[in-house]
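Example record

One chain of 164 residues, shown exactly as stored in the release files.
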Amino acid sequence: MTSPRPSPPRPKKESSDAPERSATRPARQEDGRERAAKRDRIVEPPREPRTPLGQRLRAGATSAGGRRLIRSVLAGLIGTIGLICSVVLAVGALLVGLDADSGQPYDLVSGTCDVLVGPLRDVFSFSGAKADTKEALVAWGAGSIGYLMVGLVAQSVLRPRPRD
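Predicted structure tokens for this chain:
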């Protein structure tokens, strides 16, 4: 194994070169800034001064910004409620589909799903073996999709559009 050869020593820079280089660097930076300024011909509006969050919320409670905030929070709340109802109904349909329809957890989910589905449970009627299971599965599955769609549509209608 051979040892790496040492690199040749670098020549020392003279002190007279240092002022010239420092003098040329700002000139290069200025040239770059001038070029960028020539390319950027878009005039940007001045920025508004920053205000604390509490002051913005107090001022926005009665203005259009406050209404936008309320609509945004309400849209998020409705979307979240729709999603939770959809998940509960989907879990109930899954329990019925897996024949896990016995015990206290199923009774709790079954009661909740029947309340959420309401009259939709009577829309579908099956006959034969396990007709109640089929009705619950279809009604809860359709209810789950319905809650999800209604929540998404309501959320998209209520959420304020961004300003142009």
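Notes: The chain has a mean pLDDT of 77.
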